[in-house]
Amino acid sequence: MSSAQYLQPDAASQTAATGQNVTSDKAGTAPRPKRVRLHHLSAAKTEGRKLTMLTAYDALTARIFDEAGVDMLLVGDSVGNVMLGYSSTLPVTIDDMVHHVGAVARGTSRALIVGDMPFGSYEADAREGYANAVRLMKAGAHAIKLEGGAARVEAVRTLTAGAIPVMGHLGYTPQSEHALGGPRMQGRGEQRAQMLADALALQEAGVFALVLEMVPADIAAEITQALDIPTIGIGAGPDTDGQVLVWSDMAGMTEWTPRFVRRFAELGAALREAAADYIASVENGSFPSEDHYHAQ
Ligand code: KIV
Question: Could you say which residues bind Mg(2+) here (predicted)?
């Protein structure tokens, strides 16, 4: 059974012994929560079930991924590169993020929505970070994500004390692109111990999950083993507790994709072909044809 079928109206609805609402298929296998909550993520780690996260920036695609059964939707600041035409995430503002988080929230009913804190919105002042995170939560996020290690402990404590769940992000952190010398693997050699210490510090401060981006697989595996919270990898090998991809990469919307991405479809080419077919059909008069303008 595909995970999308869990969301069909005829799926058996039941209340689990825990009192949480879950849906299951008719055979009663693999119950899935109606709304993914933080405790489902930690249970997945305990049970060894892999977690899935995709980015989403608008209601249309978010609804499709939600129906497909993804656990988490990340309204990433990658919206800057993917949707807004910037060459990095740095220009993205908190207003941009509020706008896109709201759209994703309106399009979904099941996935846990994580809103990214953009560059400059949390680093200097934890209280300012809290005010900005509140804006994302009011727009519909269920949690926020911020980049960085031990330097973010105060921000994480402030946000979690204010009931805002926080996802951490270590490894290659795109907001630090210039400080890190561009997109490259992180955590090798002397950085290894520091990355493990950062991961433990973030867990201790209260993050509920940790993204590991462009980290060698053995280091990601070591961090995953050391933590009680789930790790979500991107370019970090197979041994993290879950995976995240930028949706336009995994769907083949662009010609180039990073080496760690699998293209699960070639939607860019399909869309180009559909647009070219539409243009040719209008120009040659074959669209609209009678069946498109006769009253039903
Ligand atoms: O903004 C984003 O898309 C991200 C993912 C790459 C993890 O932070």
Answer: 77, 116, 147
